[in-house]
């Protein structure tokens, strides 16, 4: 038996070694090729009279998530994301570039985005068209987010074998109460806020009426904005999209089940063309590409930006933009997560720079650690005390902890469909004493006080400790509403009435005083310049320092991602991914007092 065990152990070690050598060799070879390319490549050629190809990949985000190169090489997986700002900048520059004749919107690899981000890109497309240049949407088919962007083009081309049908917005969760009961897991919850639903999946098997109410409030607002925008852009009658969706079987019967024909008949697309016909049509607009015969002349927006983006900001009269996106945690964190010490270092960097006259905090977060949120807010307050105005600019979501760090800014901007508010707080501590007891495992001992070992996975929570935790949570809520009252010039009673964990859209938040103005990042920058009394200024996007090694790794992973085939839909994997996401949400939080300001009923793209 020992020989068999040794054989399989040797076989396993050999397989591990082979995997390490394989991936290590792949990484080394790609890295060498990439370095050579970086050292020898010139700026990309921009074809005169060609097209700017707007081909976003993955989800629209404010900040790209960090990539673990080792995990990427082992699994072939990496966050697939496109920066909203990149699309905005490319369209803005191309608008006045005489070499760019038109924009081709290719949404084949686009995975979508939340409404405020989609609206930003759609507005940029409309602004580009004011130059007199055309925008042509050319994709096989159009999912819901795709169709919203494509609707703002001059023409929409679609393959006759595909569809362009919006489905509506939904918000669904997975619930675990019965599962946890079956395993005798005790979920100890401490919260303040009628609408604070972040922990519901652990003590309910269905969505509460309060959570449904809060979610439907913004979902209905989003759907109204979505349908109105497409109907106006496509010159359709008001209610045309709902008429199709609400009566889909009858509508589809009129075209003998042909979804593409239905989209054409209802004005959602302009032409049904095969792939060859689409290429020929685009070639007729731009001319034929010299290097790829039969294809149109154009340049991808990412390559275009490499050549055309504005150089570094001037030394004086700078407005610093600090982007924070993801969950808020204590300590340091990579991009895509908001680490209190990481962000504080960026704020301090801006404060210490004599040329910085104002700070714009761009927020895209549903919150996280309460203490980490307060650390960031205080660092912003130090900048304000030093005479530097701070303006908060909310992205798709700036709620709970995301609102906490924004609340005392000099001015707060949000998009009409930004999700904000969620002023509430909770603590969640699972214990497993019943589970362990079932299998004959018990914990016992002595302590000099009730809170010495007051919380334990194998003994549960001491009642005195539990009472203490609830008081801490209530004090945290009081701190939250008092801080908001001070920052927004409202009474504590007024804030409490609109708090309770309730989420609001940006438009509603303006009505109730949680924000100052409706507007995007550029509006926030202009406001910061006004507060700083600047007539001329430059913008400085402050990012964490990145080593040359990390730059190479980022480029390397993007090259590998482009070469990998698109994976097929894995329904089981999707379900497990949702469960993993729910569990990771709490596994990654590290507030020292177990106090969290999280908006779990806020929407978020998969990260």
SSE diagram, text form:
Blueprint: H1 2-40, E1 50-54, E2 58-61, H2 69-75, E3 81-83, H3 84-95, E4 100-105, E5 110-112, H4 115-129, E6 134-138, H5 144-150, E7 155-158, H6 177-182, E8 186-192, H7 209-233, H8 240-246, H9 248-253, H10 259-265, E9 271-272, H11 275-286, E10 298-300, H12 301-308, E11 318-325, E12 328-329, E13 338-339, H13 340-352, E14 356-365, E15 367-369, H14 370-385, E16 390-399, H15 401-404, E17 411-414, E18 419-421, E19 425-431, H16 433-438, E20 455-456, E21 460-461, H17 463-488, H18 492-498, E22 503-505, H19 506-512, E23 517-518, H20 521-531, E24 538-541, H21 548-563, H22 571-587, E25 596-598
Parallel strand pairs: 1-4, 1-10, 2-3, 2-5, 4-6, 6-7, 7-9, 11-14, 11-24, 12-13, 14-16, 16-17, 16-18, 17-23
Antiparallel strand pairs: 8-19, 15-25, 18-22, 20-21
Give a description of the structure.
The protein has 607 residues and is of the alpha/beta class. The chain folds into three domains: 1-41; 50-170 and 212-308, 2-enoyl-CoA Hydratase, Chain A, domain 1, CATH 3.90.226.10; 318-550 and 589-598, 2-enoyl-CoA Hydratase, Chain A, domain 1 (Alpha-Beta Complex). Helices cover 45% and strands 18% of the residues. α1 (2-40) packs across α21, α3 (84-95) runs parallel beside α4 (115-129) and α17 (463-488) packs across α18. It is globular. Residues 1-5 and 559-576 have low confidence and may be disordered.
């Amino acid at each position: 038996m020992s020989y068999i065990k040794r054989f399989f152990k040797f076989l396993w070690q050999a397989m591990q070694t082979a995997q390490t050598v394989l991936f290590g060799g792949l990484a080394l070879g790609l890295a060498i090729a990439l370095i050579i390319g970086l050292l020898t490549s010139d700026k990309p050629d921009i074809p005169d009279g060609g097209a700017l190809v707007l081909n976003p990949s993955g989800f629209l985000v404010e900040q790209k998530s960090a990539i673990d190169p080792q995990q990427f090489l082992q699994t072939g997986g990496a966050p697939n994301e496109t920066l909203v700002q990149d699309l905005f900048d490319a369209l803005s520059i191309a608008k006045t570039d005489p070499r760019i004749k038109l924009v081709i919107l290719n949404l084949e690899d686009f995975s979508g985005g939340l409404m405020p981000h989609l609206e930003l890109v759609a507005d940029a497309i409309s602004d580009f068209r004011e130059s007199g240049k055309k925008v042509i949407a050319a994709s096989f088919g159009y999912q819901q987010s795709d169709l919203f962007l494509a609707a703002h083009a001059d023409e929409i081309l679609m393959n006759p074998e595909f569809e362009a049908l919006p489905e509506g917005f939904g918000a669904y969760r997975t619930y675990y109460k019965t599962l946890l009961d079956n395993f005798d897991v005790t979920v100890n919850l401490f919260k303040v806020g009628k609408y604070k639903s972040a922990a519901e999946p652990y003590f309910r098997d269905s969505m509460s009426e309060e959570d449904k109410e809060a979610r439907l409030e913004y979902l209905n607002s989003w759907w109204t904005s979505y349908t109105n925008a497409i109907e106006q852009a496509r010159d359709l009658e008001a209610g045309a999209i709902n008429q199709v969706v609400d009566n889909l079987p009858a509508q589809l019967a009129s075209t003998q089940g042909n979804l593409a024909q239905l989209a054409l008949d209802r004005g959602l697309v302009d032409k049904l063309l095969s792939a060859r016909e689409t290429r020929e049509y685009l070639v007729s607009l731009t001319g034929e590409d010299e290097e790829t015969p039969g294809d149109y002349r154009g340049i991808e927006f990412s390559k275009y930006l490499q050549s055309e983006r504005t150089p570094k900001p001037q030394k004086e009269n700078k407005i610093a933009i600090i982007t924070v996106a993801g969950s808020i945690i204590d300590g340091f964190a990579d991009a895509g997560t908001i680490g209190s010490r990481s962000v504080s270092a960026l704020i301090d960097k801006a404060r210490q720079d004599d040329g910085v006259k104002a700070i714009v905090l761009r927020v895209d977060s549903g919150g996280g650690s309460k203490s980490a949120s307060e650390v960031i807010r205080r660092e912003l307050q130090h900048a304000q005390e030093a005479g530097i105005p701070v303006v908060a600019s909310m992205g798709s979501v700036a709620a709970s902890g995301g609102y906490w760090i924004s609340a005392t800014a000099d001015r707060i901007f949000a998009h009409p469909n930004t999700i904000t508010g969620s002023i509430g707080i909770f603590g969640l501590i699972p214990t497993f004493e019943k589970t362990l007891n079932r299998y004959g495992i018990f914990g016992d001992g002595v302590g000099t006080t009730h809170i010495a070992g007051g919380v334990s996975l194998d003994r549960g929570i001491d009642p005195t400790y539990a009472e203490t935790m609830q008081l801490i949570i209530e004090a945290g809520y009081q701190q939250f509403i008092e801080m908001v009252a001070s920052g927004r010039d409202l009474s504590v009673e007024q804030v409490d009435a609109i708090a309770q964990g309730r989420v609001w859209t940006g438009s509603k938040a303006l009505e109730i005083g949680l924000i100052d103005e409706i507007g995007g990042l550029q509006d926030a920058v202009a406001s910061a310049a006004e507060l700083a009394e600047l007539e001329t200024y430059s913008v400085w996007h402050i990012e964490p320092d990145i080593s040359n090694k990390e730059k190479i790794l980022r480029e390397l992973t993007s090259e590998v991602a482009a070469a990998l085939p698109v994976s097929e839909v894995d329904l089981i994997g999707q379900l497990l991914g949702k469960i993993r996401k729910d569990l990771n949400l709490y596994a990654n939080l590290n507030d020292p007092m177990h106090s969290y300001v999280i908006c779990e009923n806020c929407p978020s793209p998969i990260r």
